[in-house]
Specification:
The complex is a heterodimer of chains A (253) and B (406). With 253 residues, chain A is an alpha/beta fold. Chain A is built from ten helices and ten strands. Helices cover 40% and strands 26% of the residues of chain A. Chain B is mostly helical and 406 residues long. Chain A binds chain B through residues 11-12, 50, 53, 55-57, 74-76, 78-79, 81, 83, 85, 87-94, 98, 102-103, 105-108, 150, and chain B through 4-5, 8-9, 12, 15-16, 19-20, 216-218, 220-228, 400-401, 403-404.
Chain lengths: 253, 406
């Protein structure tokens, strides 16, 4: 379960002054659901997800993940979260096995539990062939599999995906989408940020459209289609953010 | 603070760093090779060059030697000299290094000697040129011996004893024990090398573990784990400190090996080397002083490790971090060099200047002087500086604008 309550994050920028990256964002995502956070570049998706993963502290508001408050118990929140982003890379000089085992240890798992879970993940993801090779030599697909195993080693209840298909080839992107669906089917709470409309249509049970740090529209796909009188997700998105001119102006900022 | 997490991070960083070529070079290769190369390599070449210059006969031009055949014949008979006919400008020939030296005998030199008239023999040489300097020395020794023989002959003629012109001998006797001699000779050099290498040994891992991780995108992966930032900092810090201390210990070990090899080759065997050291002809270093140097360097290594981590963390990339860290070497070298200069002594004020105080106290400890109040003050102040730096480093890790700087 994810409950974001009035999350707000401001930054000081030397040139631009006070910037509000996330403004009063509230939403709920239940176990077995995928919440899609849809927004243009710079809309506040990554900041929102970093706030949820306790990588950043909110200026105001809070969130509860798997029953733990991000402000009061950030460590326990992270222990129940698997965070996968384009910016979360692997240690090139470690092997896949060492990498995954390291994160098992950081999660306080016992060695035998790590070994058992690693075997299970390697079976599921078909990783045995490259498990003892260094990550720096991996193909994109191998890297993604290793990253997925890294996020799942501690069997988290909540999964956070920040544009995980960014820059990936079609086959790898498809396997990620399948993996996200598997997470939902196994009862995990999933939040997924993207600016790719087709991914939202394929994956998400609830969609939150974020623009200039604000959640400007939220609902299931049928609800959004009904509200905006459109069937195409792209049209819904453009209307929700206030039209093309507004979108262009926001992108310039 | 969770020691399990700290040790997990430390061991992973250690494994990761030992697989990094740059860290291996700065931590292991540089300290083990630089000292032998500097002391044995350069030293051997230097001594060989000097030995060769000494063995070679000195080329000499004799000016106005026509009426002094005795002296010219004696010079010719001496194997140390090779007479060159005075063709062209002798000064130019010396400047061009074609001839090492020239000697100008005054007209009628031998006749004047017989008559007892005072004379001046002039030796022309090229100041600062090794071979010319050696040649001038040989020539001076030759004429001094000639003069002494003349004096002895004159005294004998008059039936007077030789002691008449040499009423007493002058002799120097060293009272310093060999380890003090060594301490004074190398006391400034050893801490200088150790300070610089403890900094450079920590430099690459510090950059790799912070800016390097940011650049490669693994920092965010690490921050996603439940381990809190304090434990992450301490794990990384311990790794950087390990690199620094390893560099110091390897430097000292390679210094010891170089010294042993040097003494053996200098005195022709281990037994002879030990005898020479005992006799005080070879400078020794007090092992207790070396131990003191290691103990006093430890908090400074902590200071370096913490500062380097904090500064490198601010950078977004390896290259940016290098541009921040490289000028810091100058800041480290300057007080280390100041400590080597004569005249800068350990006082209550200099004891509080980081790095300089270490350099000064090491110099004293290596020459067998133990100023306990200063040693205590320096150790305590170093610990305070190191703690402040570590605190600063932890603070940097908790700053969002540093960790997620874009």
């Amino acid at each position: 379960m994810i409950e974001a309550q009035h999350l707000t994050k401001t930054f000081h920028d030397k040139k631009r002054g006070l910037i509000t990256a996330v403004a009063d964002v509230s939403f709920t995502c239940r176990p077995g659901q995928i919440y899609g956070l849809l927004g243009a570049n710079g809309a506040g998706k990554t900041t929102t997800l970093r706030l949820l993963a306790t990588l950043l502290k909110p200026t105001s508001g809070t969130a509860r993940l798997a029953g733990f408050d991000t402000l009061a118990e950030p460590g326990r929140v992270r222990a129940n979260v698997g965070f996968l982003a384009a910016s979360t890379a692997l240690y090139g000089r470690l092997t896949a096995r060492e990498m995954i085992t390291y994160f098992g240890r950081l999660n306080g798992m016992a060695e035998d539990a790590i070994a058992a879970r690693l075997k299970q993940l390697a079976d599921e993801l078909d990783m045995h062939e490259f498990l003892d090779r260094r990550c720096e030599k991996f193909s994109t697909g191998m890297k993604q599999k290793t990253s997925i195993a890294r996020t799942l080693i501690h069997d988290p209840a909540v999964m956070i995906f920040d544009e995980p298909t960014l820059g990936l080839d079609v086959m790898t992107a498809r396997s990620i989408v399948k993996f996200v669906r598997d997470c939902r089917d196994r009862g995990r709470t999933v939040i997924y940020s993207t600016h790719v409309m087709s991914e939202v249509e394929k994956l998400c049970d609830i969609v939150g459209i974020i623009h200039n740090g604000r959640l400007v529209a939220e609902g299931s796909l049928p609800e959004l289609r009904q509200r905006f009188g459109q069937t195409d997700m792209e049209e819904i998105f453009v209307q929700a953010v206030g039209g093309e001119a507004e979108l262009i102006a926001a992108m310039k900022n | 603070m969770n020691w399990n997490s700290i040790v997990t991070i430390y061991l992973k960083e250690l494994k990761d760093s030992l697989r990094d070529r740059r860290t291996l070079i700065s931590m292991i290769v540089v300290p083990t090779l630089i000292i032998p190369v500097l002391s044995i390599g350069v030293g051997t070449i230097m001594s060989k060059v000097i030995q060769q210059a000494r063995q070679e006969a000195t080329s000499v031009i004799i000016l106005h030697g026509e009426d002094s055949p005795g002296v010219v014949a004696a010079l010719k008979a001496d194997k140390k000299f090779r007479l060159v006919a005075p063709e062209g400008d002798y000064k130019q020939l010396i400047s061009d290094k074609k001839v090492r030296v020239a000697v100008d005998l005054p007209p009628g030199f031998e006749a004047a000697l017989r008559d007892g008239r005072p004379q001046t023999v002039t030796i022309y040489h090229y100041e600062g040129e090794l071979k010319s300097g050696i040649g001038a020395g040989e020539l001076e020794r030759f004429f001094r011996a000639q003069r002494d023989r003349t004096v002895e002959a004159r005294l004998a003629q008059r039936g007077l004893p030789v002691d008449l012109v040499k009423p007493y001998e002058i002799k120097r006797q060293n009272v310093a024990p060999p380890e003090k001699v060594g301490g004074n000779a190398f006391g400034g050099f050893i801490p200088y090398i150790i300070i610089i290498l403890s900094f450079s040994g920590a430099m690459y891992p510090a950059i790799d573990l912070t800016a390097g991780e940011k650049e490669r995108g693994t920092m965010e992966t690490l921050l996603c784990s439940p381990v809190n930032r304090l434990n992450i900092v301490l794990g990384k810090f311990l790794m950087v400190l390990t690199a620094s201390l390893t560099t110091i210990l390897l430097t000292l070990a390679s210094m010891a090996v170089s010294a042993a090899v040097g003494i053996m080759s200098f005195s022709g065997g281990a037994a002879a080397g030990a005898k020479a050291a005992e006799a005080g002809t070879i400078p020794l270093i007090d092992p207790l002083g070396v131990f003191g140097v290691v103990v006093m360097t430890a908090p400074v290594a902590v200071l370096f490790a913490a500062l380097l981590l904090a500064v490198a963390l601010f950078a977004k990339s390896y290259k940016e971090a290098q541009s921040y860290v490289s000028p810091m070497i100058i800041v480290v070298i300057m007080p280390a060099v100041l400590g080597m200069l004569p005249g800068i002594e350990l006082t209550a004020k200099t004891a509080l200047v980081p790095i300089l105080s270490l350099s000064l106290v090491c110099k004293e400890m290596l020459s067998g002087v133990w100023h306990w109040p200063y040693i205590g003050l320096i150790f305590a102040s170093s610990v305070v500086y190191a703690s402040l730096a570590l605190g600063f480093c932890v603070r940097q890790f908790n700053r969002e604008d540093v960790m997620f700087r874009t």
